[in-house]
Amino acid sequence: MRRRLVAGAVAVLAASVGVGALAPSAGAAATVGIRVDAGASLGTVPSSGVGLNTGFGDEHMGTPKVTSLMKAAGVRQLRFPGGSGADEYHWKTHTYGDGSGWIPSNTDFDHFMATAKKVGAQPILTANYGSGTPQEAADWVKYANVDKGYGVKYWEIGNEVYGNGHYGNGKGWETDTHADKSPKEYGKNLVAYAKAMKAVDPKVKIGAVLTTPGFWPDAEKAPGDSADWNNTVLSIAGGSIDFVIVHWYPGGKTTADLLNTPSRIAGVRSSLRSLIAKYTGSRAASVEIAVTENGAVGSPAQTSQAAALFAPDTYMTWFEQGATHVDWWNLHNGTDQAPTTVHGQTDYQDGGILSAGTCAGGKCEPPRDTPFPTYWGIRSLTALAKPGDTMVKSSSGNPSVTVHAVRNSNGGLNVMLTNKSPQNAAQVSLSYAGFTPAAGAVTTVSYAKGATALTTAKRGTAAAQTLPPYSITTLQLKPASGTASADKPTPAPTPPAATPVVSAAGTTGTRAQAEFGAPVGQPTPSSTSGDLASTGASNAVTYSALGGLLVIAAGGMLLLRGRRRRAMHGK
Questions:
Q1: Whose CA is closest to 156, among 93, 207, 106, 118?
Q2: Distance of CA 364 to CAs 122, 334, 335, 384, Å?
Q3: Who has greater pLDDT, 11 or 39?
Q4: Strand pairing of 205-209 and 50-53?
Q5: Distance in angstroms (rounded) separating the CA atoms of residues 146 and 204
C-alpha cells in the first residue's frame, strides 16, 4: 500500500487543524430521532460478508494470537495473495516477480488455507493476470479443489487491472505483461481464464475487475477505445463471470468527509446493477457484487477513531445495498509515514487493523499485533449481526448519527448507532414499527474513543439513549413478552433506486490512485517510490536491494518497498 495522497490532502494529514470536525451547530443539543422499521427487510447478512485482506508477505497472519483476534472480530472471509502483489505472485513456486526476492516460507497457499481454517473464514483468491496465464490459474483450481479438496469458490482474475497504464499515458501501478493492455484484451483473456478454470471445477465463481463507478478511471476512454473499461469488459465477458469486483476508497480531505461517504454507496450499486443487467441478461440477479478492498486511505484517519466509525458503517451500507463480500485493507500493513494527530488521538497512518510494529519519523507504532481502533470498529459488527440475520430498514433524523438495524434469529432486534461528532454527546430518541421492545434498561455494546475493548453494559432504554462523542453503540433489544413472533420482516425488496453516479475528476477510486499522488483524471506520475508493505518489525532496520525490490529486513521481519507504488499493495 502506498501512502501518497491526492494533492491537497497531504497538508490535511500534516496538521490536525485540517481534520474537519463535524462542528456543532446551534441545534447540536437537539434530540436526534431514530426510526426502525423492523418489519421491512433489506436482505440477510451474507455468510462471508465481513472480510479482510492478507498478503504473502505477512508471516504473522497465521499465529495463534492473530488468528484468535480475527476470529473474535467475526472475520468470515480472507483474501489472498494480496493486492497488486497478486499480479506478480506465482502460487506453485511461492515466488514473486522474477523470483529472486525473498518472501516468507510460511505464507504459501497451504499455510494461508490453514490460517483461513483456524479463523473459520472462506478464502477468496486472486489469480495472477498481470504476469500469469489461464493455465497457471486452472492448475491452481485443480490443486485447491481437486487435489486438496479445499473447495475454494471465489476467484478474482487480476487485481486493479485498469491500473496497468492503459489510462494515464502508460504510467500505471499494476503489473501487466500483456502487450495489449486495453479493456478489450482483458475481457478476451477473462473469458479464457474462466473457461480454463471452470473446465477443472465448474462450481468455481469467476470475478471481473471493474472500475468503481464515479472514480477514475471510470468512464475514461483511451486512444483507440470504443467504450470505457466497464462496458468493454462486460460486453465481452458478461456471459462468463459470476461476480463483479470494485474497490472502495472514498477518502476525503477531512474526517467529516470520510464519515459521510457511505451515503454514496447506493449510487455506486445502482450503476453496477445497471451494467450487470445490460450485459448478463437473465443471469443478472445471480451476479454478485464483491468489494474486495475497502478502507480509509485518502483521508486523514487511518488508525484513529474516525476510521473505526467508518468501518462498520461502510460494511453495513454495502450489505444493505446487496454486496456479498466486503474485505478491509489490511490485516497488517505498516507505514513509512510519521504519525499525525487527529482529534487529539495519534494516527499511525497505517492501513492495517493490527499494528505491524513499524517506526517512522522517529516514532514507533504500538507492539506488533496490537489492535488499532479500526479493529474494534469492525469487531463491533459482532454485537450487531450474525450471518443470516435479517437487515431491516432504519433512518436517522440527523446525519451526525447513523443507524443500522438487524433482526436476529431469536426474535430480538439489534440497533447500531454511531455518533460522528468528535466533541458532542448525542441524545437520541428511538421509535419502532414491527417490533415492540421489552421495557427497562437495555444491553448495550459500545466502543468509545480511546477504548481498548468493546464495553457491554446496561444503559438507557429502547426509547432513549445518550451516545458519547465519536462512538459506536449497539442496542441489543429483546421483544416484549408475547410479541416475539408477532411481526416478521417482509421479504427483501429490490434496493430502492438511486441515481447512478457520474464519474468526476478529482475523485480517487483505489488505494493506488490515492497514494500515488496524482490528481485524478490526470496522467499518473512516474515516481518509483512506494510505502512499506509490512508484516511487522523491530526498531533494527537494514536496507538492501533484492530483485528490483527494496527489502527492509527489520528484526527478522520482511518489509517490501517496491517500485511503481508496489509497497503495501499486496505483500
A1: 207
A2: 33, 10, 10, 34
A3: 39
A4: unpaired
A5: 12
